[in-house]
Amino acid sequence: MAIGATMVWEVRPTNGSNLNGGGYDSGVAGATTDYSQQNTAQESFTDLATADGTTTTVTSAAALFTSAMIGNVLHIESGTNWEPGFYVVTTFVSTSEITVDRSPTSAAGASGVGKVGGATKSFSGQTTQTLQANLVAGNKVWVKNEAWNESVALSVVTGTTTCTIEGYGSTRGDGTTEANRPLNDRNSAGAPIACNASGYILKYLSVTRSNGVGIAMSQSGVCVGCKSYSNASHGFSVATAPSEFIGCEANNNTGAGFSASTIAYQCHGCYSHDNTGAGYIVTTGTPTLRFCVSEANASYGLGSTTAPIRLTNCTVDGNTGAAIDGINMQPPNQTSSITNCIFSNNGRDGIRSSAASPGAWDAYNCFYGNGGTTATNYTVNSTSITTDPGFADRANGNFAVGTNMKALGFPGTFPGGLSIGYLDIGAVQRRELGGGLYRGGLM
Amino acid sequence: MKPLVSAVERPDDYYNEYFRGAVDYDPAWRNYSYHAVDIPDGTVIEGCNFAQAEPKTECINGENLTFRDCNLCNVALHPSWTLERCLTAQSYVVADADGNDARQFICATPDEFDDKKPEHARPVEGKDTLAGGVEAVE
Fold this sequence. Notes:
The structure holds 2 protein chains of 2 kinds.
Chain A: E1 7-11, E2 23-25, E3 43-48, E4 57-59, E5 73-82, E6 85-94, E7 97-100, E8 105-116, H1 131-134, E9 140-144, E10 152-154, E11 163-168, E12 183-185, E13 193-195, E14 200-203, E15 206-208, E16 215-217, E17 222-224, E18 227-229, E19 236-238, E20 243-246, E21 249-251, E22 258-260, E23 265-268, E24 271-273, E25 280-282, E26 288-290, E27 293-295, E28 302-304, E29 310-312, E30 315-317, E31 327-329, E32 337-339, E33 342-344, E34 351-353, E35 361-363, E36 366-368, E37 375-376
Parallel strand pairs in A: 1-9, 9-11, 10-13, 11-14, 12-15, 13-16, 14-17, 15-18, 16-19, 17-20, 18-21, 19-22, 20-23, 21-24, 22-25, 23-26, 24-27, 25-28, 26-29, 27-30, 28-31, 29-32, 30-33, 31-34, 32-35, 33-36, 34-37
Antiparallel strand pairs in A: 1-2, 3-8, 4-7, 5-6, 5-8, 6-7
Chain B: E1 22-24, E2 36-38, E3 44-46, E4 60-61, E5 66-68, E6 82-84, E7 90-95, E8 101-107
Parallel strand pairs in B: 1-2, 2-4, 3-5, 5-6
Antiparallel strand pairs in B: 7-8
């Protein structure tokens, strides 16, 4: 046996301890009590012993074991012949004897030092065996919103079974509100979070002040509700394998908001703004952006040196610079599709391709107030419009469109003519007067 | 508001895309990358980006300013300022493998900067001095 897929870990970056157990697996037979959701360990041991290097039986003359420890992690730190690491209590025999998931010693063990229960403090700060090196597919890690500053490198889990790292405030699951999310503030140190293997899902985590990239996805993974700001390079980066970003925000980064080098990404409902680089930049692959906003960046709203690109219901506004376009793209244009998007108030063109080629699937877009022309080397479809989008409060980042964009988006009448949709142009749909409350949001 | 620089509008002292000239601080605009900025003394600035192309660029005029959650990358800092959770890293613009702009981190604060420039730093083609306090670059 080993650490199970159903293990749930608890990280409390200020009040936890790297010596604590830090985990609880409710899937272990007989597990009833989670001791990981507390700052201090439930019990500490200094006299743990085993009979040999193969047994899973652990004894303690102190007689402090309880049946409620089943499913909790015994974190061994040191001892004669002990192999420091995270072990799961699988059986309670008596107050002086338990069994764990695997043999914890290389020979007869003595003077073992360890703790059961209590949240751990970090992913990387444990002395011998780090949490990040012991995560397995299926695990969940909760990170409480406490002062946090460490470099997290996730590189163990691979494959389609995921490992989720999720931030929260006071109650697990409340990270949908930004104020509740833990902030990994690196204060000019490196790599707040780097996913170096596939299968990680990052939820409701914020990072800032990295000396490089904020969140680096080197293999395929997913970020949900994450924020990366004021980093010395890109907010989010993708390499090697595609990743997906849902409801993420990148702002004030010295590089781009979202960057991809050797592979592209998909963004849904993301917000990239006020970055020194582009809002979104891709050099290889097919970037897909849906309902995303790119505004007030000091470079392109979307810069793509690859083709094709796919944009649906995006708002690209106010990206600043004498030669800065809403989209700066590469031919062949005809493989790209740009639909229901707004390109407004950008420094130069709404869309510019580096060379002319047959037209893209360009439909129902709005071009307004750009410093250059509507488009260069790019054919704008006759369905596009040039009216003021009427943003609700652009200066304060509210890009809800006005009535000028009302129900002008594709597809409108569906094939067969039996269904008619009323989709606005732009990323942020308008609320009808007297309309109900919105329902969508992160979950 | 319109972007600070466009194909048809720019500050009088605009030089190039890395030295975009001097502007006045406006709370409605948060991105002052590559600009010199005049800020009224005593102002509290939250969530703005003042990143510059080259280390220790003197680009912000104003005293007793409070910066909160701002990007001050490559900004020369004034002793009267208060910084709360701001990025003060110093870096150079370099070309990445694809030829795009990237950043090479040099040090965490302007005080640690030793004037060494990486060989592959991308020329940003500044000129000797720009109005608004932007210092010379090579």
